[in-house]
Amino acid sequence: MSDNIDLSSAEERMQKAVEAARQQFGTVRTGRANPALLDRIEVEAYGSKMPIKSIANIGAPEPRLLTVTPFDPNSMKDIERAIRDSDIGLNPQNDGKILRLPIPDLTEDRRRELIRVVRQMAEDGKVSVRNIRRSEMNDVHEFRREGDISEDEERRAEGELNTLTNKYVKQIDAALEGKEAELLEV
Questions:
Q1: How far apart are CA 105 and CA 33, in angstroms?
Q2: Cα–Cα distance between 119 and 173 in angstroms, integer?
Q3: Residue 99 in contact with residue 67, Cβ under 8 Å?
Q4: CATH 3.30.1360.40 holds for 32-102
Q5: Where in the chain is the domain with CATH 3.30.1360.40?
Q6: What's the fold here for domain 8-25+107-184?
Q7: What CA–CA distance (Å, rounded) separates 133 from 161?
């Protein structure tokens, strides 16, 4: 790495972009029960919208079942409504204390649709990584214009940024590949 240019913040931001993409993948339903499926759901309770995990315990006691246990039994109907109205396609069963969410098998069409969704999420993640590279490249070019670094340092920093970018794009591709395999698993 060149003396005047520190790319650690760019690398840190790229790592966060990859992590955000992985978390997004976790919110896509596969054939298996995963508490992360409910991460995007917000419940209208106590006069405001809150993440479901802040007002209930979420568990996966079986491979094809999620359970939601509200901290306050009075919020059960609000949680049930939020899950039903969400786009995850689960139908809660309310027994008065716990909501059970059976995870149905995915149809072939639904699998293809979800693969399109995760590919778009992956593309969004890669765009984030590339935007970080562009931002850092602009800074490097600005340093060069101001005479703070030499042409060689500028080229070296560009090469390092491209290497970092490729590394993190590959990580997103690998995570996408894993998620696609998970979705195609019957």
A1: 11
A2: 9
A3: yes
A4: yes
A5: 32-102
A6: Topoisomerase I; Chain A, domain 4 (1.10.132)
A7: 6
pTM here is 0.69
- How far apart CA 117 and CA 140 sit, in angstroms, is 35
By C-alpha distance, which of 17, 28, 23 is closest to 182? 28
- Rounded to whole angstroms, how far apart are CA atoms 110 and 165? 32
* Other Cβ atoms closer than 10 A to 44: 14
Grouped pLDDT means (10 residues each) for the chain, 186 residues: 71 95 82 79 88 91 90 90 83 90 82 88 96 95 91 93 96 94 80
Residue whose token pair is 């006691």: 61
Contacts of 175 (CB under 8 A, 6+ apart): 18, 21, 22, 25, 122
pLDDT of residue 186: 62
Which distant-in-sequence residues (6+ apart) come within 8 Å of 140 by Cβ?
5, 149, 154, 157, 158, 161
pLDDT value at position 117? 87
Closest of 62, 63, 59 to residue 98, by C-alpha:
59
Q: How far apart are CA 48 and CA 170, in angstroms?
A: 40
